[in-house]
Amino acid sequence: DLLRMSNAVSKVIKSFDQIYKNLESNHANSFFSSPDEVWHSVGLLGPSRISFDEFLDSIGISKDISSWFKLLNSNVGNLRKHLLAGANLSNYNQNNSKMNGELYYKDWK
Question: How far apart (Å, rounded) are the C-alpha atoms in residues 99 and 94?
Fold first, then answer.
């Protein structure tokens, strides 16, 4: 799960960096009339339409720890439940189902 999340974040950062390149350009295609156009231009419009939970599902982040993995290591945590949900609750006072999936790409799978 950690590798999947890391790959997803890397793709988002690469796309997000494109926003700055677009805004520094004087080309006609770099002028936007709405935030949606900016997000669309870098392939990040989809996330505002889904929850963070849906985004995590789309990249294959587990909701639960498999029973065989629990047998191997009883101290293992769940990235989605213990780290991401906790960080979002602490930082944004929202759980994963209430946050939008600002990081979604339709072709990440």
Answer: 6
In percent, the amount of the chain with pLDDT more than 90 equals 5
> What are the pLDDT digits (tens) for 59-108?
888 887 665 555 566 556 677 776 677 777 666 677 667 666 654 443 44
What backbone torsions phi and psi does residue 51 show, to the nearest 5 degrees? -80, 165
- 12/31 Cα distance (integer angstroms): 21
pLDDT of residue 56: 83
3-state secondary structure the chain: CHHHHHHHHHHHHHHHHHHHHHHHCCCHHHCCCCHHHHHHHCCCCHHHHCEHHHHHHHCCCCCCCCHHHHHHCCCCCCHHHHHHHHHHHHHHCCCCCCCECCCCCCCCC
**Neighbouring-strand partners of residue 100:** 51
